């Protein structure tokens, strides 16, 4: 398929260029993850009470998410992100999704808002993984 012919994936990214689509999906992931991480760092106490999650856990997650967001942002800044690091991001996102669901089922006892937030966050991250996977696949087959 020619880069000039948009696919449903590249149309979603508003570009016909597969590498641009991949970079955009990585960049959106980096921004959303970074904002989430910074919110956990800046407001772990109030968010912990709202979500029914320990503030110390939110601080640790916020630190991790902020560093992860910077790494994904650096990857998104590359003209042609390398396949191996993109696959690592996809796998990390899928791992986050599974661990969020497992934590909700087996370990966390959140408020209703916290349970909804955990599920919505897991679905969002899974969506990033799917978009990034297919964008990577499209970019390596052009």
Provide an overview of this structure.
It comes from Streptomyces griseoruber. The chain crosses the membrane at residues 21-43, 55-76, 88-108, 114-136. Keywords: Membrane, Transmembrane, Transmembrane helix. The mean pLDDT is 91. The longest helix is centred in the C-terminal third of the chain and has 29 residues, at 112-140. The chain starts with 7 loop residues before the first helix and ends with a helix. It has helices at 8-12, 18-42, 44-51, 55-76, 83-106, 112-140. It has one domain (8-140). It is an all-alpha fold and 142 residues long. Helices cover 80% and strands 0% of the residues. The protein contains six helices and no strands.
Helix-strand sequence:
HHHHHH
**What is the helix tally?**
6
Low-pLDDT parts are: none
- Please tell me the total number of domains: 1
Strand content: under 5%
Q: Supply Rg.
A: 16 Å
Q: Can you count the beta strands?
A: 0
> What composes the largest sheet?
none
Shape: elongated
> Alpha-carbon distance between the termini?
6 Å
Query: Mean pLDDT, as a whole number?
Result: 91
Structure classification: mainly alpha
Helical proportion?
Answer: over 70%
Short description:
80% of the residues lie in helices and 0% in strands.
Keyphrases for this structure?
elongated; 142 residues; mainly alpha; transmembrane
Secondary structure topology:
Blueprint: H1 8-12, H2 18-42, H3 44-51, H4 55-76, H5 83-106, H6 112-140
Helix pairs in contact: 2-4, 2-6, 3-4, 5-6
